UniProtKB/TrEMBL annotation:
Protein name: N-acetyl-gamma-glutamyl-phosphate reductase
The UniProt record lists the keyword Iron: no
Organism: Cloacibacillus porcorum
A matching Pfam family: Semialdhyde_dh
The keyword NAD is annotated on this UniProt entry: no
Gene Ontology molecular function: N-acetyl-gamma-glutamyl-phosphate reductase activity; NAD binding; NADP+ binding
Record field: catalytic activity: N-acetyl-L-glutamate 5-semialdehyde + phosphate + NADP(+) = N-acetyl-L-glutamyl 5-phosphate + NADPH + H(+)
Length: 349
């Protein structure tokens, strides 16, 4: 395919919007025809994202009203929850395909959405057709989709850590902890994310229930009572390390676990295993995936064969947001899944 596919990015001033711009700057098929921001309309993209100035020196942010006059094949929505769903309705009515990075279409039912997010869903009529945006699970549904949801970054990390065990029916209980960088809180600083409050902390947030747990329960087809999920803020800007302390429902040998992980992830273009040796590399470290769309998975099994740590590491802004979104869009438009996403991790980071 040589024809360029015109796309717009809504909410292009945030961290996820910046990552989409970074990916599309070198994507061979997608072309950004509109970077949408009501607050920064008329300002150059390089002024908000200095690292992209050299590739977008002629592009300025446009208002939503200006974006309505554009002819785009797809809209990437990096907007706040609820606002994203409302814009998705308008984009679909305009004949565009939608890749939504918010939480608005991740859950299958309006009841589940209200239970986890505390408000009525703004566009419940679209929930039945939205495809959950993790290609490793829903690749086959994406080619014909009009609407693909975003993925929760913590959910992505937890799902990739636990999927091999869940498919084998081995999980009796899992206590999930995600150690997360500050960019997970978004580009707009508040009291909790200001540097003086955030730096050098080990702050435990919601130690038993996190909203992204809804996606884990849904995508692994497990009972909520089997899980707890918490988040710890650590001294990172980007990255998530997920540690799932799992109690298995029967005794297993390490060779069996390796077989399950290979069966789940062999052939997946963005998923890798950590090595068996040396031991300190068995648990994935986010610094080995920063800047890329990659996932590292690994595990350690206790001597009793019933307890283990299932782990993963991702860049929350890439595989946990913009990278997965582009991976989904590639499939949606019949492109090679890895197109524009072959960047190597940046190390050391």
């Amino acid at each position: 395919m040589t024809e360029r596919i015109p796309v717009t990015i809504w909410g292009a001033t945030g961290f996820a919007g910046a990552e989409l711009l970074r990916i599309f700057a070198r994507h061979p098929h997608f072309e950004v025809v509109g970077a949408v921001s009501r607050s920064k309309a008329g300002i150059s993209v390089g002024a908000a994202h200095p690292h992209l100035r050299h590739v977008y020196n002629d592009l300025t942010f446009i208002s939503p009203e200006e974006a309505n006059s554009l002819s785009a094949a797809a809209a990437f929505l990096a907007l706040p929850h609820r606002a994203s769903a409302q814009e998705a309705v308008r984009r679909l009515e305009a004949g565009e395909r939608v890749i939504d990075l918010s939480a608005d279409f991740r859950l299958h039912s309006a009841e589940a959405y209200k239970n986890w997010y505390g408000v009525d869903h703004p566009a419940p009529q679209l929930l039945s057709e939205a495809v959950y945006g993790l290609p490793e699970l829903h690749r086959g549904e994406m080619a014909s989709a009009r609407l693909i949801s975003g993925v929760g970054c913590n959910a992505t990390s937890a799902i990739t850590a636990l999927l091999p065990l869940a498919r084998a029916g081995l999980i009796e209980e899992a206590r999930i902890e995600c150690r997360v960088g500050s960019s997970e809180a978004g580009a707009n600083a508040d009291e909790g994310s200001a540097h003086s409050m955030r730096s050098r902390v080990l702050r435990v947030v919601n130690p038993f229930v996190h909203r992204h747990m809804a996606e884990v329960v849904q995508e692994l087809s497990m009972e909520q009572s089997s899980f707890t999920m918490g988040v710890t803020a650590v001294e990172l800007v980007r990255g998530i390390q997920c540690l799932a302390h799992v109690t298995l429902n029967r005794q297993v040998r390490e060779a069996e676990i390796w077989k399950l992980y290979r069966a789940a992830w062999n052939g997946e273009p963005f998923v890798s295993f950590t090595p068996a040796k040396p031991a300190h590399f068995r648990i994935p470290d986010p610094r080995f995936v920063i800047g890329s769309n990659r996932v590292l998975t690994g595990f350690m099994l206790a001597e009793d064969g019933r307890r283990m740590i299932a782990a993963s590491a991702i860049d929350n802004l890439m595989k946990g947001a913009a990278g997965s979104a582009v991976q989904c869009a590639n499939l949606m438009f019949g492109l090679p899944e890895t197109e524009g996403l072959d960047m190597m991790p940046v190390y050391p980071a």
